[in-house]
What we know:
Blueprint: E1 2-8, E2 14-21, H1 25-39, H2 49-62, E3 69-76, H3 79-86, H4 88-105, E4 111-114, E5 119-124, H5 129-146, E6 148-151, E7 154-157, E8 160-167, H6 173-195
Antiparallel strand pairs: 1-2, 3-5, 3-8, 4-5, 6-7
Helix pairs in contact: 3-4, 4-5
Amino acid sequence: ELRLFALPSDDGATDSILLFLLDGTSQRHLQAEVGFLLDHDPLTGLISRSAVEEELRAQFESIAADETFGLIVLDVDYFVALNQNLGTNVGDEVLVAIAGILRKRLRGTDLIARIGDDEFGVILPHTTQARAEVVTAALLRDVHNQATVKAGGYFHQVTVSAGIVIASRNDDIKQLFTSAIDARSEERRVGKECRS
């Protein structure tokens, strides 16, 4: 950016010009960084809930009337107890580990977000119920097999519960999250009954 300033003399005539050349690179870099921080979770680097809702709106606008996409909501089992008993630093390690597992398992076109304290959301574009169930089963298995934390001299196995919703462009975005969370709660309840 180039700025010119006229410097008047004592009699009011312009006898000097001051020229400023400003480099906007650092300002653009700062603006980009602030934009990233507004749309992303600082711990995991995943996009935030507000950003994923914007992406869902974009999905609605871009898909054909007969196409569907999947929304998976995952929640860390016993996360509050884990934080209370092992410390928030261990809880943070768990969240970062799960974010990494999700990144490794999912396609580049899938969108991963941290949507709550211990909740993750995954958008699967152009996906059927059967495909979403296969992906969800793989995610649950990967977290179970790979997310282990060591604290107090012991290894602690981490698990997640998941709910799946298949949506089309006619569905309500806010209701999708509610439906996925309800499905996750039901899956968790049924899972507990099966284990007891």
